[in-house]
Amino acid sequence: MSETKFPRGLAERLRGILIDADYTVSGVRDRLGDAAARALAREELVPALRATGGEERLGLLLRLWWLRSPIPARAARSILPVDELAEAGLVTVEEGPGGPVVYSLVHLGPWELEDGRPGFVVSDPKVRPGSGGVPRPDHVVGTGGASSTLSQLIVDGPVDRALDVGTGCGVQALHLASRAREVVATDLNPRAVRLAGISLALSGVDGARLEQGSLYEPVGGERFDLIVSNPPFVITPDSSRYTYRESDLPGDTVCAELVRQAPAHLTEGGWCQILANWVHRDGDDWEDRVGGWVTGTGCSGWVVQRDVQDPAEYVELWLRDSCEHGTPEYTRRYDAWLDYFEREGIKGIGFGWISLRNDVAQDATVRVEELRHEIEQPVGPYLPDVVDGAMTALRLTDAALLSAHVALAPDVVEERTGRPGAPDPEKIVLRQRGGLRRVARVGTVEAALAGVCDGTMPVGPLLDVIAELIGEDPVAVRERAPEALRTLISEGFFRVAR
């Protein structure tokens, strides 16, 4: 592929052609239909090829850009500037059995920008199982589950300056473009910088700055209001195979370095949000390990573990990712990878996210937890409230808590379990119907407080009334209530009124 800048005029014309043919998220979904889309998710192309047959424009574009099937050059030239696209390195023209055909050299997929406008993401074609191929070392991966997870995590804007570290195909930079006045995207891989530039150009995003280099090196002493990263976090004994998933730093060090260096590049109050892997070792608590990356940065943090895999599961996942299952190298690589984990004492690998806010505070706090259940998406709109709750709970002394005005969060409901006719329930729980959908088992005092607190009265007098109603000593209730209430504030069941 040519390393020259993608011509702006060509980008504008190609964008117009794609939109005019309804090569959009909704247009592609409607054209393929549910059965073909489900087959593609199973890496089966035949139903999609059947659904896109003929010489109608959308079908031709789908076969060329999405399914990577050759289309007749005559038909391609009727809708596309083939020679210019070939010069730019996006397609190639070859002689086929029935005459000249056009092949795509990239995957060009429709995307929907945050404001609803059509966008496009350009990446290297996916290497499909059974094809006999493996990704090139500088392979640029397209959109997938991880990129979707990160996009759902990003806090709302607007912000002044945003940075995408390890931009890959540029999909996160597209998300940032609707939130930030200025977007900078970096990647160690020059091919990724090139393809990200095409993604941005085809999506009508002007002015984004693309830089080549590792981690924060390309942005020197610059600061940003928002930093995001889907880094090459795969933990492997061989760091030189694929730049999109592996760094030259050992173990989970690349994620640790992204976190530790973030404050130097954040404005006050700025956010850094990354996806990460981290190791689990015997005798090494993962919460302390990852929380330690954040401690001392002056940032408040929220670390969430969404999944844990044992070493065998992890190795199988990434060998499938590089289409090595069934190849002569599969067993050797599998065995060497397990040897590496054994030498390092790695018993499991966690996957999740880390969000930091540069509070520049001595009492900045880090909340570390595991959430395996389904939560409300996107997370970004309510993520600051999660960090605020943890910070508030940390800062309130018992006396301040009893003087605070507290209100039940609006999405919380109470559930009671007990035998019919029994005077008291066996169990009372508070449940969040939205957000993180947590469940907390509470006592009679906390349940009663949940029923009356609306932010208009301090906690202390409310507890006194509750103690009188249930026949307990108000002093004893005041002494034990703050600990439980602090946890409920930290977990978002209660909010301190401002």
UniProtKB/TrEMBL annotation:
CDD domains, alphabetized: AdoMet_MTases
Pfam families listed in its UniProt record: DUF7059 (PF23186), MTS (PF05175)
One of the record's GO cellular component terms: eRF1 methyltransferase complex
UniProt KW Chloroplast keyword: no
Top-level lineage group: Bacteria
GO terms under biological process: methylation
GO MF annotation terms: N-methyltransferase activity; nucleic acid binding; protein methyltransferase activity; S-adenosylmethionine-dependent methyltransferase activity
Keywords: Methyltransferase, S-adenosyl-L-methionine, Transferase
Domain DUF7059 intervals: 21-96
Keyword Signal: no
Domain Methyltransferase small, first and last residues per copy: 158-277
UniProt similarity note: Belongs to the eukaryotic/archaeal PrmC-related family.
Protein name: Methylase of polypeptide subunit release factors
Organism: Nocardiopsis sinuspersici
